[in-house]
């Protein structure tokens, strides 16, 4: 569990740089629902203030449970939780300065848009004028001020998402929690709203804790990502760290790497794997990870292959998928298969069954344990 | 305050639960379960010389129910049960036959007309059942056009009316319960997946096959819910047989009522009531089972 | 689609036939209430004499009053009790409350006649022993509430089940304490179900005859009971007149309901 | 409303002069609430089911009095509160159903006969044949009463036995006759005495069992509708009844109840009652004030008819159970 | 409306080569629902036998309508339809040898899996033994023979899809129609089932007419794609043809090209566009299309830029998205923006706001009309 020192993705403008302090500090969080449903199995985590922080993991890994503990909707069985400097482990939800954007938004159907956005202020007993004013300002910021009089069922999915966001933001919480706010949307809307969410976070400089099970989404949006698995944190880091230096096979597979192989043997000159030998000097490890981008595909008898030196893998095209801008080949080599991507920059294609050679830059090869 | 979403329990949660459900539960237990239990206990008491229950406990009322009385064995009670069953099945069947196409028709009507159409079906049932019966008494009495027509057709003897009669009872039951079948059927028709009809046709089914496999199975939950809502109250119906039947061919409801409201034999009446409840429960269980077997989700049924 | 027209025609015919079936009995009642003679075979002339007789009769006016009191009081009580019951069942649905459902189904499936007689025998015994459960408007209200409340509870419960459970979390998350949650979320959200429950209770009460009949006392004659005993005394145009007034009330209620539905529909926009 | 007290009167329908009620209300500044029944079994059932503590005055017929006393449903009268007891005619002073009028005071008396439509049944004899003989009425709807003993008595009389027949064989034979009659195509319904008159007027039935006074009352009220309706006292014999006033055991206002009974015992009031209902009065003192109509048939049966009139026997125990089972059987088949 | 002469993607094995004949021939198909809802506005189309043929288009363009006409579930208002050599325009659905896999499968809830698969055979009056036998064989082929006794509501989404497929295939139709059979599934399952469907089609050599609104899906799976728009066919061709040589801007945009620009002026040496000039010889046309893959991104002062010659676009990074294997830059240039993709092969990244140069291979630039 490495905690990175600085984000790799820089923010939009200078004054919104993530603050150095910690917004949320979790220690030894444990939560179980009955004997065999352990949702959180001891979570330690520091979430830097002002960052876009993502909890990523497969379904049932404990993402929602963690978020609910932070929001105060559930009390953990063990462990402590600080928001800023304050220990809020036993503080009720409605007394925490944290707000949530729920998965399907959980907007109040009996209130109009303005009523929804102003709900938190109303509960805090603000007067009508203040509420109207702040609702108006927040709505304008999120660009939904023209919708304030609408009923919830008159809104589109994207509009609802914005209302849910405004309803949380208007309270100026220390931390905004977002539980898969995009998972119910179709692909087009989803990628538009990803961008919008990111821009809003950048402009406000507020800490966002974002939950998703989609690694692509996590990568596009986050300053930091924590990968969860079975109630534990597998790795924390920037998207690039997770993609390029996964700490273990679980993270590697979850980040979409198909070419992960157990190392059978290792000696001074290289490794033996399922697809054959790999020459070079590698650290002692269990697995080797070869990202598709570090390989190029060539005809078996192409001149580049001869000049490429040691690290060439020979194989046969088993399958190929045309994806417009690129072609995805599945190549059978040794006892296994590798996936390699070729961009369609005018060169020819390889037929299924054709013999090919994959040329690899050894510097891009990653070894990992676990 | 217990969390509406959480499954955690505790003393405060228990207090919260009791605060909410106790009034309703106590009300129903004290004012319905207890009376029902008392009534059931009456079934096992002795009939006093003027019809009131007395100790000791006996099976006498059930013997009488089984047909054993001062006259030896008599099938009279079987007549009553048989008549009640026939009327129930007949009325339910007729209601289905009428409600099925009507519910379908409403579900296919333009969306803005549907609330009006449903309302038109339901409104008569907002009046009192006694008033609905009066209408039929007016229409079916001797000397009315309908009765004269029936007489001319030889369906009834001349000078007689269509009311009072078993026919009037059946008609009254159908009229009374029609809305209770239309509503659940409408609900299933409204979310009918027409793709299943297409699928059946696509796979070679003709008109009947498309209905049998593309429509009927989807509407079964509604059909069963409707049957529960129609058959069970029809089985226990009192007002309509009493008013439209002329009191000459008793049904179970009247048989029970008379033991309390006229003939005075409370234990016998209570025993018959017990049988009614058991028959109702049995019917409900059977229909629920059937519903599950035929793939309706549990929520559809009562 | 083009061939379906015979089917459509048949269905349309059936629909109109059904309307005749549904409304003919009511129409006949209305028409005969204006008949100047007491006969179901002949309609001799139009007259208001039965209405005059009606408004001159104290008993009928008292019965109308009793009906209104019974329906309104029982419906309000049942709505309160049923709403609490439905919400309690929902809020604690994680517990084993299966038995509660049977308690709620019991009044729904119990045949009216058994229901009424059970309460008659019970209340009359209780009254003989305690003098407090004398049959009358009180016992009628008690009886009505006992069968109305379950329906209200089911309506409220099914409304709650249809809600996103996260809405409750959203309340806490937005700083509402328990009372604020009830006041600003649960009650307004349940409002349509509560209103619907109240109207359902009202219709159930108005439709009921049997249970009222068996739990009524000397001074609690309601319109249906009055009509029933009038029928037992031989149907008369006066009854048609009372019935006509009730039908008129119901039709007015229906028109209002419909207007509401359309207004709501319009508001929700297309 | 607003009155000092309320008297609950539970009586046959169409059996009271509203003016008398008004007068009583006025004299004692009370309200009178009336409830009605159409038959004795109905009244008895209501009384059993809580009515005994809700009504102040009831008006049962002679044959139900013993069982009301037996079951403790009515209370002994406090004769000190009934100043006009002496007005009762001698014939009714010590009746078999209630010796020395300890529990009851006679109200009115009359007989049960047949009313029928003379247009539809022009050849009707003064006999139960109108109801029981298909040859007399093969086509037109007709009704029988709902009280087992009333109907069985009629069947007994038609079968040649006395109207007040008793014994299981007699009742079984009567039940068979009723069943056979019920099975006839033109049997319409079981209707009580007062309601059946309205059914007759509406044309719903052509014949039914009813009471002499009610018939006369309707006929005089509405001569047009009743012009073709006639009343006969069957020659085979029929019921003579005396309706009496009694106070339920737990009547809420026994004092007022006594006042009411005594009020009706007053000569003029007794006469006014009979003049209104067309039933004969058991009140000797009322005689001078009675209308002429009450001195001849149908209100006052001829001496010859009198001979054929019988009280319905008071039953109890197994005999009562037997008759009731038989009656349930008749209605169930 | 060009009809390609041969598929570019070759099939798995030799004997499954698409047959030269035409499976379905549509001429002048016209279908309207009321005056202003024209679903099919004159469709002419030949679907080659044995091909995986996809109808692609936005929602409401008439895809389902076309499929229903082929299936016989609707009768067209005008036009003719041949299946094989037979004119089936007026033949009822249950008499056509065509089967459909419906969008949400439309499986019969009252029948178990075996009952569903055997339904068509039962309707055709086959005897029980034949039905059992063929159901068993088809189920084995689709690998769901272990599910035959299951109820439909006990199946997962992917299993349902296979049952729906088996239910259609067991009838050995001439043509299989599939109406968005994958659109209800989540991304992971979806891409697995895409492959599976493709393999089944290849093995059977049957004509598949597949409907989707997802261009990625269309590209991965199809031999030929017909792009529909407002009841008309915009272009028919192989995926590569559509991607590389779209016939008009509609097709280009629908195939996911962001860099489509109107041509302002054209002369002998090049074109003037919103982002600047483009040197080279181009045919007369309205639009120019620059696929992201034909551009490479460089620092404004990089040596490659100087040596690249004319076609260099200078701009400034406006936005960038990290996608693991590649980085997506939005670059502001001239009066517009271009999207360019850079694969993460170890080189550095460009910060937002950085000045960059996009170097283009002019041979990859496409011009088009419309
Ligand atoms: N109220 C509860 N009762 C019992 N088990 C629960 C409860 N809430 C969560 N769990 C269990 O805890 C584990 C973690 O659940 P959680 O909802 O946090 O997962 P998640 O990562 O949010 O999954 P998803 O992506 O599906 O939303 C799961 O195994 C789940 O079944
Ligand atoms: N039964 C119908 N009645 C009226 N209009 C219809 C009907 N069926 C289709 N249409 C109209 O015809 C047009 C084409 O519809 P179709 O269903 O073929 O589109 P589609 O391409 O399948 O869209 P989608 O991707 O949304 O399924 C649409 O404008 C639609 O509204
Ligand atoms: N209407 C009064 C009838 C009395 C019979 N005993
Ligand atoms: Mg979750
Ligand atoms: Mg479609």
From TrEMBL, chains A, E:
GO terms for molecular function: ABC-type transporter activity; ATP binding; ATP hydrolysis activity. Signal peptide: none annotated. This is ABC transporter. One of its GO terms (cellular component) is ATP-binding cassette (ABC) transporter complex. InterPro entries: AAA+_ATPase, ABC_SmlMolc_Importer, ABC_transporter-like_ATP-bd, ABC_transporter-like_CS, Mo/tungstate-bd_C_term_dom, P-loop_NTPase, Transp-assoc_OB_typ2. Residues 24-255 form the ABC transporter domain. The keyword Metal-binding does not apply. It comes from the Bacteria. SMART domains: AAA. Keywords: ATP-binding, Nucleotide-binding, Transport.
Automatic annotation (TrEMBL), chain B:
The chain crosses the membrane at residues 20-44, 85-106, 118-139, 167-189, 220-240, 260-287. Keywords: Cell membrane, Membrane, Transmembrane, Transmembrane helix, Transport. One of its GO terms (biological process) is transmembrane transport. PROSITE patterns: ABC_TM1. It holds the Pfam family BPD_transp_1. It is found in: Cell membrane. Belongs to the binding-protein-dependent transport system permease family. CysTW subfamily. This is ABC transporter permease. It comes from Salinisphaera japonica YTM-1.
TrEMBL record, chain C:
It is a multi-pass membrane protein. It comes from the Bacteria. The chain crosses the membrane at residues 12-34, 60-87, 99-123, 135-157, 184-204, 243-263. Pfam families: BPD_transp_1. It is found in: Cell membrane. Its main location: membrane. Keywords: Cell membrane, Membrane, Transmembrane, Transmembrane helix, Transport. One of its GO terms (cellular component) is plasma membrane. Residues 64-257 form the ABC transmembrane type-1 domain. One of its GO terms (biological process) is transmembrane transport. Belongs to the binding-protein-dependent transport system permease family. CysTW subfamily. This is ABC transporter permease.
